[in-house]
Write a structure and sequence with these properties.
15% helix, 6-stranded mixed sheet, Immunoglobulin-like, 157 residues, mainly beta
């Protein structure tokens, strides 16, 4: 109390009050990881009511990575890349990342080849899907499983 009889609001008093009220837990971040159902929903949004066929898509990702911060991912799609038959897009879905649709690459016949090499962040050990959308409206898929020993992706909510 100060001379006027009121309590002075110090930083120490404020923090101890937060702790007493249990509000300090709100200051800590929450980590949100997707579930397999979230990944399947993301795939469903991409393909709609179309069926997905296996084949044509090759996904290369290391089966074991020490850190999920920079994981090399290579995807290629078997296509002649002509004006009448080409890959329109390839979507990469990671089942355990906070946002499962980690990237989409778009192609045209002028792309020449439907190959992508990039680095991605993976939150945990998981299955990664590659879904190719072809110019004729068909969808092709493949997947690869990877074991991540040190997680990378976290999302604060």
């Amino acid at each position: 109390m100060n001379q006027c009889g009121s309590v002075s609001l110090t930083r120490r008093w404020y923090l101890s009050t937060l702790g007493i009220l249990g509000l300090a837990s709100w200051l800590t971040p929450f980590v949100a990881n997707a579930k397999k159902a979230d990944a399947m929903e993301a795939i469903s949004k991409i393909v709609g009511s179309n069926t997905i066929q296996d084949g044509k898509v090759k996904l290369v990702i290391p089966p074991l990575v020490e850190s999920g911060n920079l994981v090399v991912l290579k995807v290629s799609i078997d296509s002649p890349m002509t004006a009448s038959d080409y890959v329109k897009a390839v979507h990469i879905i990671a089942e355990a990342n906070p946002l499962p649709n980690i990237f989409t690459a778009y192609f045209t016949p002028r792309s020449g080849r439907a190959d992508v090499t990039t680095r991605v962040r993976l939150a945990d050990s998981q299955r990664v899907w590659a879904i190719a959308q072809m110019s004729d409206g068909s969808y092709w898929q493949t997947y690869a499983d990877t074991l991540v020993t040190l997680s990378a992706c976290t999302e604060m909510i």
